[in-house]
Specification:
With about 130 residues, this protein is mainly beta. The chain has a single domain, classed as Jelly Rolls, CATH 2.60.120.10. The protein has no helices and ten strands. It is globular, with a radius of gyration of 17 Å. Pfam families: Cupin_2 (PF07883).
Length: about 130
């Protein structure tokens, strides 16, 4: 066995029922984007499920942990530091901790993307904060 491996024995002693988090309970304001904060649900990660129209996207910001994007539908222009990348449906990109980043829907249709935060809480520092 490799020293980095962890071995666990499976168990059937889990909860009798799984908790389902209804999508509607995660909606942010009146938009279609949802925010899942892992700590509130016993999960070790958090995420945004983005559903943006053309031209929409968050402003420049950074996190003290990595963020991984999975593009489900549409086209996103992703800015990471001084790099600009174009990601399409089925593409995945990861931004390192502490790097300024943003994305924008540059397609003609909706952008649907899962933004996975490697943290059980969401910590964001915005560039336009005073």
């Amino acid at each position: 066995m490799n020293a980095a491996e962890i071995t666990l024995a499976p168990t059937m002693d889990g909860p009798a029922t799984a908790d389902i988090v209804p999508a509607a309970s995660l909606l942010i304001g009146t938009g279609r984007t949802r925010r899942f904060v892992g700590r509130e649900h016993g999960a070790g990660i958090s995420y945004f499920f983005v559903d943006n129209d053309p031209g929409q996207g968050p402003g420049l910001h950074w996190h003290p942990y990595t963020e991984t994007w999975v593009v489900l539908e549409g086209t996103a222009e992703i800015t990471m530091g001084d790099r600009r990348l174009v990601a399409q449906a089925d593409d995945t990109a990861t931004v390192p901790a502490g790097v300024w980043h943003r994305f924008e829907n540059i397609g003609e249709g909706r952008l649907r993307m899962l933004c996975i935060h490697a943290s059980d809480v969401i910590i964001q520092t915005w560039a336009d904060e005073d």
